[in-house]
Amino acid sequence: MREEDSSWFSKWEEELPSPEELMPLSQSLITPDLALAFNIPNPHHTPPPPQAAAAAAALPPQSTAISSQPNSSAEFDSPEMSGAAGGGGGDEPARTLKRPRLVWTPQLHKRFVDAVAHLGIKNAVPKTIMQLMSVDGLTRENVASHLQKYRLYLKRMQGISSNGGGASNSPASGMDAATDHLFASSPVPAHFLHPGRPNSDHYLPFVPVAAAAAMQHHHHHQMAVFEQHPFLRQTQPPLQRMVVPPAYAATEDLESATPANGKKVLTLFPTGDD
DNA sequence: TATTGAATAT
DNA sequence: CATATTCAAT
């Protein structure tokens, strides 16, 4: 291995949540929209959404409140589709109802960048990124949208370095105007800025599980975290078995900015620190 | 078909 | 402006 890889890896490891922190994550068996849709404070049985279905089946009956907010107002009535109460259930409210806006916290973005870095630009497409991130409640659309913006950001960064002489461009030199604050919170891997260098693609492809055993001279407790928490995983056998820390729980939060609107936002891992 | 990504909408 | 949604292309 190259030293860059090791340092990168060490860094990655340091960021891993401690085992204690990982514990509560087993909570969200039920996807945010579902919880939202039903407005369930304490979900007992999990109405399985397509993808989560398999995972949910294996899920231990641990459930903690998805909405830790003592939100007293139950302002939502469920505009569920007509009938369909036949027990077999044809209704999928989660699909119908709009979920709250996702707020990209620096931490969430960090995971995003890490995922993209691991995958390499080539494989960094929304679905794959989403899978690698393993953030509960995060959708492919969420990632796609963010990825689009991130690519713009990268393009801008490339633009400032090699200037062709465009005189009509002001923000390029200015770099971080305030829009980039989020993006600036996570360092951009060098390769991202160099599309012309095909060789230095992804550093760390994925850590073979065997590697965990091999790397004995360090104590990596969270290494096998995936095997302890197989749920939450989507369905994707052939793909990566990387060290990605388990999914984080989604927390609903009310945006106080617009009280009249009562808009809800989804805050993925609220713990803020980088 | 499902997914991507740019455009467009909120 | 940040995120969502739409939509043509793959």
TrEMBL record:
Bias-annotated ranges (Polar residues): 66-75
Nucleus listed as a keyword: yes
Compositional bias ranges of the Low complexity kind: 52-65
GO MF, any single term: DNA-binding transcription factor activity
A GO cellular-component term linked to this record: nucleus
Pfam families attached to this UniProt entry: Myb_DNA-binding
Domain of life where this protein originates: Eukaryota
Protein location: Nucleus
InterPro entries referenced in this protein's UniProt entry, alphabetically: Homeodomain-like_sf, LUX/BOA-like, Myb_dom, Myb_dom_plants, SANT/Myb
Entry-linked SUPFAM superfamilies: Homeodomain-like
Region feature Disordered, mapped onto this chain: 1-25, 38-96
Keywords: Nucleus, Transcription, Transcription regulation
Keyword Transcription regulation applies: yes
Residues covered by the HTH myb-type domain: 104-155
Classification via PANTHER family: HOMEODOMAIN-LIKE SUPERFAMILY PROTEIN (PTHR31442:SF29), HOMEODOMAIN-LIKE SUPERFAMILY PROTEIN-RELATED (PTHR31442)
Protein name: HTH myb-type domain-containing protein
Native source species: Erythranthe guttata
Source organism phylogeny: Eukaryota, Viridiplantae, Streptophyta, Embryophyta, Tracheophyta
